[in-house]
């Protein structure tokens, strides 16, 4: 892994949650999830762009690589365990080299991290399982609906509401998902359910990751129910990764064991495993480790909504790359749906930018 840049101290205003105290008032107050500073310096903008571009590249590469691997290695829990194992080894090496200093946490805070690790594991496992049941275009288009779930979760967890402009911008996203999944699009009912569930879990994980890495502040939005929202621990991204990966590895191995997948992996390995396939699996694990580092760091630097925008751009290329690599067909209706979804994501990003600048308030 190339030398790691320190996460930039940037404004997280694009992670702000709008809070309407008085329904009759036209003014909204905004509070940020992570720590904030007043402005972006030129060096900060370059560093932020670096992390978002790196996240984009790793995310796109791993999505396509995972699909290719799962075609010949159809064991999603074991693949997730491999990712977590690589994250564990990589995190421990970085810790030993003094790349980061682990935070000192209380028993209650450690328990919160264990609970978060379950979400962390299930999110990855559900994504890999669903990717094995649906095509890459279908998977990525449904994932493009993440902003919808971020807004709904903000309402549920913090009692906040989003502006009218932002809600309207989600209409083409919803319509696009409907058009894109219309007709024969090579997915099963289980694949559809798991893909939607994975999108909800991804939105929740993105919000929770920002919270865990943010600094406690009196202006931070207060959750409706404390036990469903993790505490603000100001964890370094690598610290969070190193704590999550071993727990995720243990949980995935248990899942693989109780579902009988480990037995199938053993049978497959004795018949089909070759040095080349072992090397390809190892590279897949290294890319997953790189994505975890980049994802946690970029999330801390940019916030969940900017991450969603980067993910939407990645989804466009995922669809077209998958059509070429896996020889898929897309009907005109599906193509309209894909374009609507992506256009809605871009509109949403523009609204978020305008609100960050304080030009729209309702």
In short:
The protein is an all-alpha fold and 362 residues long. The chain is 68% helix and 2% strand.
Secondary-structure map:
Elements: E1 17-19, E2 29-31, H1 42-72, H2 76-96, H3 107-131, H4 136-143, H5 146-158, H6 164-169, H7 171-180, H8 189-212, H9 237-258, H10 261-272, H11 275-302, H12 304-325, H13 332-356
Antiparallel strand pairs: 1-2
Helix pairs in contact: 1-11, 1-12, 2-3, 2-9, 2-11, 3-8, 3-9, 4-12, 5-8, 7-13, 9-11, 11-12, 12-13
Protein architecture, described:
This protein has 362 residues and is mainly α. Helices cover 68% and strands 2% of the residues. A two-stranded antiparallel ribbon has the order 1-2. Helix 3 (107-131) crosses helix 9. The termini are far apart. 45% of the residues are buried.
Query: Main beta sheet: strand number and arrangement?
Result: 2 strands, antiparallel
Cα radius of gyration in angstroms: 20 Å
User: How much β-strand is present in the residues?
Assistant: under 5%
**Low-confidence spans: pLDDT under 50, at least 5 residues?**
1-40
Cα end-to-end separation:
44 Å
Structure summary, number of beta strands: 2
Order of helices and strands: EEHHHHHHHHHHHHH
Number of H- or I-type helical stretches: 13
The average pLDDT score comes to: 75
Class per helix and strand makeup = mainly alpha
Order of the strands making up the biggest sheet: 1-2
Can you tag this structure with a few keywords?
mainly alpha, 362 residues, 13 helices, disordered N terminus
